[in-house]
Amino acid sequence: MFTKTIGHLSTRVEGNITYIVLSGDFDSSLNEPFDNLVLELTDDGVKDIVVDLKLCTFLYSVGVGKIVALYKKLEKVEDSSFSVINPDDRIKKLLHLVNLDFLIK
Hints:
The radius of gyration is 13 Å and the shape is globular. The protein has one domain: Transcription Regulator spoIIAA (2-Layer Sandwich), CATH 3.30.750.24. It contains three helices and five strands. It is α/β, with parallel strands linked by helices. The chain has a five-stranded mixed β-sheet with strand order 1-2-3-4-5. A hairpin with a 2-residue loop joins strand 2 and strand 3 (17-26).
């Protein structure tokens, strides 16, 4: 298993799956670090990504947008997979309200 941490973002690799673990609030302060991380991962050919929200305390609209952008980016890649795991009840409700609950595994 490989782990890398940048501020409130960390990644771990288990087999072919890369987990992006968010801690704290997913707000505009994570825009650039999240975009850079996604670019690095996709440039490295990563096709299977899981966003783990277990440690995420609040998901602002910018965070929702970043999750959608990553999902759409991977949707264009053959044999890719994307999901969101471990959202708390508030985040789960938010994802349901914006019709993204299908991403939750």
